[in-house]
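QA checklist item 7 of 12: single-chain prediction sanity check.
[x] sequence parsed
[x] length recorded as 140
[x] structure emitted
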Amino acid sequence: MGAQPAGRIALLSIKPAYAEAILAGRKTIEFRRSRIAADIDIVLVYATQPVGQVVGWFQVASVIESTPGKLWRDYSDQGGIDRHAYLDYFSDTRKAFGILVRSATRLKVPARLDQIGLGVRPPQSFKYLAPDAAAAVLAA
């Protein structure tokens, strides 16, 4: 990752298949039911069980707020998810958010969350980390 980031970083829990698609460059938007903070430029990718590790990171190009229907129409070809799973995920919400991926990097060695320290546990959706916590993962 190079120089230590200046601001907070988001740690996102992502299903392993979607995490792999992001890191392989096949998925260039991550759909979410809630918005990440505007100051987030870097996202650590935590692949949920059975992987259970931080497997990479990506730069945020932008965050889009829309309705689930419009977001699907505009970005379904970049989302790496089938229509049924997408509609099921957004079934009871009027807002949808898309985190556009600028570039993704796979960690050479995936990192366990206990390597971050500070009592970090897998987030339900996402969690904000101080730059030093993220640097611990990337250095481990």
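[x] summary fact logged: The longest helix spans residues 131-139.
[ ] second reviewer sign-off
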